[in-house]
Design brief:
about 110 residues; mainly beta; about 45% strand; globular
């Protein structure tokens, strides 16, 4: 089953639920948010931080900034993202990450 998600006509996302593989949960955010495994976080406005969950092996999180602010993607606590603590997303930037059980890797 395919679902169309629209934020005021500016962005349309298509999500496929079911079957094997990654089944994302799409969430729109405008303020500081702690992601959960499987999230696709759409940052629609503002400047804030999206904190990743603890890196569970094989889990995926994606973050997209469609607003004009800057989004900081932060590894939980001392957990890193490609050996760094944060990733900064400008307008229309996105990052998809997969965990190896110890840290997050940009894919």
């Amino acid at each position: 089953n395919w679902t169309d998600l629209t934020d005021g006509g500016a962005t349309t996302l298509h999500s496929h639920a079911g079957g094997s593989g990654w089944s994302p949960t799409i969430t729109a955010q405008t303020t500081t948010y702690t992601a959960v495994n499987g999230d696709v976080v759409i940052c629609t406005s503002g400047t804030f931080t999206v904190t990743l969950p603890a890196p569970t092996s094989g889990h995926i999180v994606a973050v997209k900034n469609v607003g004009s602010g800057r989004i900081t993607v932060d590894g939980a606590g001392a957990n890193t993202i490609d050996d760094g603590l944060t990733v900064i997303l400008g307008r229309y930037d996105a990052v998809m990450l997969i965990a190896d059980g110890t840290e997050w890797w940009i894919i």
